[in-house]
């Protein structure tokens, strides 16, 4: 894992946006895996800016989002689809036919999940997957104890996750109990992963994911098995990393010498 620690969220987001933009510049028909939550907001803002001011072209890009709440329509204010429209898709030139977000209203959920996996395969697989991390170490909605080989499926949310996400709803009772989520196995098949972690409330989960044992109790720790992961954290999220100084030296060296 390459751990990149930046002084604050906004510097880290701009750094992450550059990495993603480089993928799109090198491969205009890239397949991007995208995440929701407050973590990638700065990254999406910067991508929008690059599109507007620098002509970053998304016209040939295909996107797949990680997850969506079950029972929530794509137009509903809390839906992840609407979140993506409002924060990214409405402001760049990706055709909506190339955008994929799981459908929370799908009648045949297992069938929909299988079709989602197939669509990813048919698109040639995900070139780069953006990830946040839950305070309990989840990625997408793969809660602790999720199989590290899991595929896209419905998953029941933990109370911790429901409480963490309650800020987007009027009341805790309104937070759905289930979500459709790419599996850990699905995520591990992406060619590259970019995991972002910001704020002190992610410090414990990030340390467990990066430096703890690989365990289904911390689904993000499965990324240790992936050959190409970049973790971009701000200082507060990196606070509990035992090898923080080493990661910083390694980054400084890479920036200086290219190695
Ligand atoms: C949700 C999403 C995850 C996200 C996590 C953290 O549970 N399903 O993909 O990483 O929240 O959210 P935030 O970025 O708001 O801290």
Please characterize this protein's 3D structure.
- The chain has 259 residues and is α/β, with parallel strands linked by helices.
- The protein has a single domain (2-257), classed as Rossmann fold (3-Layer(aba) Sandwich), CATH 3.40.50.1360.
- The protein has 9 helices and 10 strands.
- The protein has helices spanning 9-26, 41-54, 80-87, 109-122, 159-165, 184-188, 203-211, 235-238, 244-257, and strands at residues 2-6, 31-34, 62-65, 67-69, 99-100, 128-131, 153-156, 178-181, 193-197, 229-234.
- It has a 7-stranded parallel beta sheet. Strands 4-8-7 form a 3-stranded antiparallel beta sheet.
- Strand 9, helix 7 (203-211) and strand 10 form a beta-alpha-beta unit.
- The protein is globular.
- The two termini are 15 Å apart.
- The mean pLDDT is 97.
- It binds 2-amino-2-deoxy-6-O-phosphono-alpha-D-glucopyranose.
- 2-amino-2-deoxy-6-O-phosphono-alpha-D-glucopyranose (GLP) is lined by residues 35-39, 66-67, 132-134, 140-141, 161, 165.
In short:
This protein has 259 residues and is α/β, with parallel strands linked by helices. 36% of the residues lie in helices and 16% in strands. It has one domain (2-257): Rossmann fold (3-Layer(aba) Sandwich).
């Amino acid at each position: 894992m390459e751990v990149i620690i930046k002084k604050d969220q906004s510097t880290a987001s701009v750094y992450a946006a550059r990495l993603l933009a480089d993928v799109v510049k090198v491969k205009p028909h890239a397949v991007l895996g995208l995440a929701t939550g407050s973590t990638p907001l700065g990254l999406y803002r910067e991508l929008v800016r690059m599109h507007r001011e620098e002509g970053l072209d998304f016209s040939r890009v295909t996107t797949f989002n990680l997850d969506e709440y079950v029972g929530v329509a794509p137009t509903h204010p809390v839906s992840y689809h609407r979140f993506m429209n409002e924060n990214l898709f409405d402001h760049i030139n990706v055709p909506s036919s190339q955008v994929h977000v799981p459908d929370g209203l799908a009648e045949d959920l297992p069938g929909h999940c299988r079709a989602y996996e197939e669509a990813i395969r048919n698109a040639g697989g995900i070139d780069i997957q953006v990830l946040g991390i839950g305070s309990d170490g989840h990625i997408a909605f793969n809660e602790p104890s999720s199989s590290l080989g899991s595929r896209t499926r419905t998953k029941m949310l933990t109370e911790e996750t429901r409480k963490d996400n309650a800020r987007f709803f009027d009341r805790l009772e309104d937070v759905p109990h289930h979500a459709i989520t790419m599996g850990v196995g699905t995520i591990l098949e992406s060619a590259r992963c970019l995991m972002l972690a910001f704020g002190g409330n992610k410090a414990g989960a990030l340390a467990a994911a990066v430096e703890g044992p690989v365990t289904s109790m911390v689904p993000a720790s499965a990324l240790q098995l992936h050959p190409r992961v970049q973790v971009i954290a701000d200082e507060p999220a990196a606070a509990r990393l035992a090898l923080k100084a080493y990661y910083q030296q390694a980054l400084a060296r890479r920036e200086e010498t290219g190695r």
